[in-house]
Each structure stands twice: as structure tokens, then as C-alpha cells.
Amino acid sequence: MVTLTDAAVNTLERVLAKSGGAAAGLRIAVADGGCAGMKYQMGLEATAGDEDAVLTFGPVTIFVDPTSQPFLTGVVVDFVEGVEGAGFKFDNPNATGSCGCGKSFSAGPGGSCSSAPAAGGCGTAH
What we know:
Layout: E1 2-4, H1 6-18, E2 25-32, E3 38-45, E4 53-57, E5 60-64, H2 69-72, E6 75-82, E7 85-91, E8 97-98, E9 104-106
Parallel strand pairs: 1-6, 2-5
Antiparallel strand pairs: 2-3, 3-9, 4-5, 6-7, 8-9
GO molecular function, one term: protein-macromolecule adaptor activity
Domain Core: 2-103
InterPro entries: ATAP, ATAP_core_dom, FeS_cluster_insertion_CS, HesB-like_dom_sf, IscA_plant_cyanobact
């Protein structure tokens, strides 16, 4: 389903260690929003949900809810650092369109960004 690069695993291992044991893993989800229609969400979680897919990458555990699973099949999550800052990058083979921020995508027919950002969107860079 989801694959983490070594850079993502190393970064998440440090983040989870800083939680002092309060977080058992990281939840990756997809929700409506962003300028392309859907957006990625990430957050630390104390436990997995009853129906979550639980993925383990060495010391890092990922939780994915059933609704998000189809949108995250084949996704590669990387952690990149550059002149514009550092952050997680999603390479999603299911995306039919995305916006310049890399955090918003579409996964249906006609998947392109609209010319105006949605509320809370990432902008209109294509």
C-alpha cells in the first residue's frame, strides 16, 4: 500500500522518539480539500483504529484508515530537504492531477487543478 523511503523512516523515527512514547505510530490519511480536490493528512497516533491497515517499516509504524487505503495504494512517501525547506513528499500513482504544493491531488477523471485555490488550498502552481 504505502512505502516509505529510508529518509522518511529516519525522520519519522526521530519524530516518534520525541513523542516520549505517547505516539505508537503515524497516521497517513486522505481527506477532501486542497486546491486539487483531495489532500494528504499526517499525524501522530497513540493507537491504531479497529479497521486500520498497520504497516511497519523498521521502528516506524504507519496507520491507514479504510477510506484512505484505495487512494494510497502504491504511494511512496519521501522526506526531502532543499532551498525551499524540508518536508514529506508524496509520489502517488493514483493521482490524475496535482497542484504545485505536492499536498493536494485529484484521483478521478479530468484531474487538473482549478484556476482558483479552494479555501485552505495550497495555491495554483501547476
